[in-house]
Amino acid sequence: MKLRPEELPENGYILLDQLGHKELVPFIQTYMKKRTKFSVIYYICNSLIFGLTGYLLVSDFNSETYSFAAKFTSFSYGLAIALVLLPLHEYIHVIAYKLNGAVNTSYDANLRKFYFMALADKFVANKREFQIVALAPFLIISSILISFIFIADQNWTLTCVATLLAHTAMCSGDFGLLSYFDYHQDKDVVTYDEVENNISYFYGRLKR
């Protein structure tokens, strides 16, 4: 979006919310509880992948070669790989920001609350731009993992599915912010980050 933050009020935008980054988790939880398109998609995806994971854990249970320890080891590998993918996830966010015109990008993390953020300082993003930024890592990484599920041998299938499960769960922040936009679908909502003060702002105006 071509508007600068200081130009928003003169273009009819009013402040809807300001999100201190330390308060990200309760903010996300609030909007994941709202019945929006993106919260529903998120929970359906997690439920389907969770069901597939459970099936793979107990499949071949009656086989003489069945080993829950081996299955759990494969599952654990998937969780570990998902953690390794976190930097890639955030880097894809940054690439998406830059493709939309952002210049000053950076990262933030809080290991105690276990959240990671890609930020674009004072870059005003509209709904369409933010959807691209928020969904890019989920769509790209999920597509790669799903393709691996179909081509991996049996020993690695559970690992790929477990990675997909963990990564999808970790996308809750992205879907929570998308849910915020969807909850305010009666307005043109825009957002921008103020890195110096660790705050993200949400402005909106009634649709014309």
Describe what this molecule looks like in 3D.
Helices cover 56% and strands 17% of the residues. With 208 residues, it is of the alpha+beta class. The protein has one domain. The strands form two sheets. A three-stranded antiparallel β-sheet has the order 1-5-4, with no helix packed on it. The longest helix has 25 residues. The mean pLDDT is 93.
Mean pLDDT: 93
Numbering strands along the chain, what is their spatial order in the largest sheet? 1-5-4
Beta-strand percent range? 15-25%
Q: What structural class do the secondary elements suggest?
A: alpha+beta
* Unreliable residue stretches: none
User: What is the CA-CA span between the terminal residues?
Assistant: 17 Å
| Helix-strand pattern | EHHHHEEHHHEE
What is the total domain count?
1
Helical fraction equals 55-70%
Shape: elongated
How big is the Rg? Answer: 19 Å
Q: Main sheet?
A: 3 strands, antiparallel
Give the strand tally. Answer: 5
Q: Work out the helix count.
A: 7
Briefly characterize the structure.
The protein is of the alpha+beta class and 208 residues long. Helices cover 56% and strands 17% of the residues.
Question: Features of this protein?
Answer:
single chain, 208 residues, 3-stranded antiparallel sheet
Topology, pairings included?
Elements: E1 14-20, H1 24-32, H2 37-58, H3 68-84, H4 86-99, E2 105-110, E3 115-120, H5 127-151, H6 154-170, H7 172-183, E4 187-194, E5 199-206
Helix pairs in contact: 1-7, 2-3, 2-6, 2-7, 3-6, 4-5, 5-6, 5-7
